[in-house]
Amino acid sequence: xxxxxxxxxxxxxxxxxxxxxxxxxxxxxxxxxxxxxxxxxxxxxxxxxxxxxxxxxxxxxxxxxxxxxxxxxxxxxxxxxxxxxxxxxxxxxxxxxxxxxxxxxxxxxxxxxxxxxxxxxxxxxxxxxxxxxxxxxxxxxxxxxxxxxxxxxxxxxxxxxxxxxxxxxxxxxxxxxxxxxxxxxxxxxxxxxxxxxxxxxxxxxxxxxxxxxxxxxxxxxxxxxxxxxxxxxxxxxxxxxxxxxxxxxxxxxxxxxxxxxxxxxxxxxxxxxxxxxxxxxxxxxxxxxxxxxxxxxxxxxxxxxxxxxxxxxxxxxxxxxxxxxxxxxxxxxxxxxxxxxxxxxxxxxxxxxxxxxxxxxxxxxxxxxxxxxxxxxxxxxxxxxxxxxxxxxxxxxxxxxxxxxxxxxxxxxxxxxxxxxxxxxxxxxxxxxxxxxxxxxxxxxxxxxxxxxxxxxxxxxxxxxxxxxxxxxxxxxxxxxx
Length: 482
Fold this sequence. Notes:
Elements: H1 2-19, E1 23-29, E2 53-61, E3 67-68, H2 72-75, H3 84-90, E4 99-105, H4 112-119, H5 121-138, E5 142-146, H6 159-177, E6 180-186, H7 189-195, H8 198-202, E7 207-211, H9 244-253, E8 261-266, E9 268-274, E10 286-289, E11 301-303, H10 304-313, E12 317-321, E13 326-331, E14 334-337, H11 341-353, E15 358-362, H12 378-386, E16 404-405, E17 414-415, E18 431-434, E19 441-448, E20 451-458, E21 463-466, E22 471-474
Parallel strand pairs: 1-2, 1-15, 2-4, 4-5, 5-6, 6-7, 7-8, 8-15, 12-16
Antiparallel strand pairs: 2-3, 9-10, 9-11, 9-14, 12-13, 13-14, 17-20, 18-19, 19-20, 21-22
Helix pairs in contact: 5-6, 11-12
């Protein structure tokens, strides 16, 4: 009898994990407040109900184990400062269930100072105490360790175990105050294998954000996608590991519990300048990064808000790569690989299929947060919908942009005005449902006080709504529509 009770208890625990609400972890790049009009982002623009966790980036570290505020005038209230920390945490008033964290590190911080601090037990202990004091002082719910990366970029081999010691000591102190401890980590095996004891670190972190992007970029000599879901058949060697699926399976195979693994997705693309305009596919030769965008102003990097505005201006050809399950686009000698609503919806289906803990996004201020190309926050809303979170779906304020398409291209579904009543019996539960007569039409159903509110959508020409991924897909890949 006791044995069966244990079996049922174990099954109940597994069911509880499977049914737990998925996380949507929203990173905010605080420097976006300095961008030009159109891309300039204010904390008040954040819709906290669309995030389970919001992470403010970044603070830094000093060699003696103190936390260094990088932009005191912007972050703090002192000396007539703008108190961004306070305004960020105040967003919880709109969404009390949303948690806020402060992140330390980032690419620009490098690794050397982190390596030195964690190597010395006394300095490491001072850093742990300072971290707890800092988080409590400014009212965050937790702390995100974004050391890029142990044993790399100025680090040393001892970093791997010293990193574990740091996390263990942080978690022990955090538990006394009910604080959250997370980390942002390299995703691909080629980098992660140099930096992490995955099974050991997983014991101490509440969740782990794998940065499954920047898998290709203008540091290479040929075009490659920023965050392909799967490899292509023509790839070989190390390139076969530079995709989301290979990265996730590496982390799972090396001891990370799936419910702690949060899949990072990019709200930006990596962009190149083509060496030959006529060679514009994947693996095409390049001469360097594409020209900088008007808002992010970084060569080789386009926020999704910049990409959708480019498409709105016209002249771009968009190609959806069947094997990678992600799109790329080109115009003249400019080329960008990025994610859109369709590819992110497929990535949420992937998260659900492996019962991962949820999605992380980098970063909220490069979504179409103003709704310039359609509804506000299309990418963030796609993550919420795909992970089956019950959040308000606002009607779009404008029509999405039209794009110049090749025969193999797609674009986001075109939104129609809300209908007053659903087709007879079409809505049986909240979520998306395909039209019974036309595979290219689908509806979003939301039960409001017992009455379904419905929005109608059309897939682009030649596509059909695929209920397996809750997005438009090639007709030949959609059961019952080919």
